Amino acid sequence: MKNFDSYAVFGCPINHSKSPRIHQLFATQTDQKLTYFAQEVNAENFVAAVIDFFEKGGKGLNCTVPLKELAWQFADKKTERAKSAKAVNTLIKQKDGSILGDNTDGIGLVNDLTFNHGIELNNKRVLILGAGGATRGILLPLLEKCPDYVVVANRTVEKALMLALEFNHNFKAGSLEDLKNQQFDVILNATSASLTNELPVLPENLLAENGICYDLAYGNQPTAFVRWGNLHNASKSLDGLGMLVEQAAEAFTLWRGIQPDTKSVIDLLNSERM
Ligand code: ATR
């Protein structure tokens, strides 16, 4: 549309992305004139596609799987949280033409936990399952919330240990087997197991009484980890739909300088689940 600022999400696969819908809802709500489209872009044609997008006047871009590390490499400047994540999900064209890279995933998770679900992390024993890109993206904003301590447990223990080294041992790292006889108030599933409806092998008594489970993934049906949480009497067992909307809201605010209301969008998307 003529004179409308242009935004997009790049990724592969991208056809099921909810981002265009979410951003259009934000735009309507805040009376912003913009377009937002999804484009299938793979690692091989990423740089050419991003250059083309910004040359044609694009104002901001979201990057999702498998492009977040490439977006991190592409950005001229990066925010602190993007630097620590080594992954970028939001590119912003600056007034001087340079491209700023940010990562809004971690703050999206923290905002969903605290504002939408009233879950405070300070003094909590927090477990993160997985030590891949998703974990990297959430660690800094999570640690800033001052939990009692954070454990990152991964199937491949070396990856968790490497991550701890990188983060100056601000959290403990271990294997899934090390979790035996430990208990946590909040367990976050940041593995990609949910995408194939699998579940890491977890000890029975891992979740403390009134504990909370949160799967960074989401689906129309409860994920395997959300079901695990319900089975183990979690006071709340949540998936990442709220995080998705919150990370989008953070990107929208960076781009447009206006904060959208997330609750109405989360409620709408929730009501559409089958
Ligand atoms: P993402 O960017 O989604 O985090 P990733 O960087 O490939 O993807 O990381 C995937 C994470 O999920 C890894 O921590 C992986 O464990 P390994 O490092 O041992 O591969 C974890 N993962 C995937 N499937 C899993 C499963 N079935 N059980 C346990 N962990 C799993």
Q: What does this protein look like?
A:
The chain is an alpha/beta fold and 274 residues long. The chain folds into 2 domains: 98 residues, Leucine Dehydrogenase, chain A, domain 1 (Rossmann fold, 3-Layer(aba) Sandwich), CATH 3.40.50.10860; 136 residues, NAD(P)-binding Rossmann-like Domain (Rossmann fold). The protein contains 10 helices and 12 strands. The strands form 2 sheets. The chain has a 6-stranded mixed β-sheet, sandwiched between helices. Strands 9-8-7-10-11-12 form a 6-stranded parallel β-sheet, with helices on both faces. Strand 8, helix 7 and strand 9 form a beta-alpha-beta unit. Helix 1 packs across helix 9, helix 5 packs across helix 6 and helix 5 packs across helix 9. The radius of gyration is 19 Å and the shape is globular. The site of 2'-monophosphoadenosine-5'-diphosphate has 14 residues, from helix 6.
At a glance:
The chain is α/β, with parallel strands linked by helices. Helices cover about 35% and strands about 20% of the residues. The strands form 2 sheets. The chain has a 6-stranded mixed sheet, sandwiched between helices.
The largest sheet is: 6 strands, mixed
Shape: globular
Rg over alpha carbons: 19 Å
Strand fraction: 15-25%
C-alpha termini separation: 33 Å
Bound molecules: 2'-monophosphoadenosine-5'-diphosphate
Order of SSEs:
EHEHEHEHEEHEHEHEEEHEHH
What's the CATH architecture of the largest domain? 3-Layer(aba) Sandwich
Helix content: 25-40%
Structural class determined from secondary elements = alpha/beta
- The CATH C-level name of the largest domain is Alpha Beta
Low-pLDDT residue spans: none
Number of helices: 10
Number of domains: 2
Mean pLDDT: 96
Number of strands: 12
Strand order of the largest sheet: 2-1-3-5-6-4
What's the CATH topology label of the largest domain? Rossmann fold
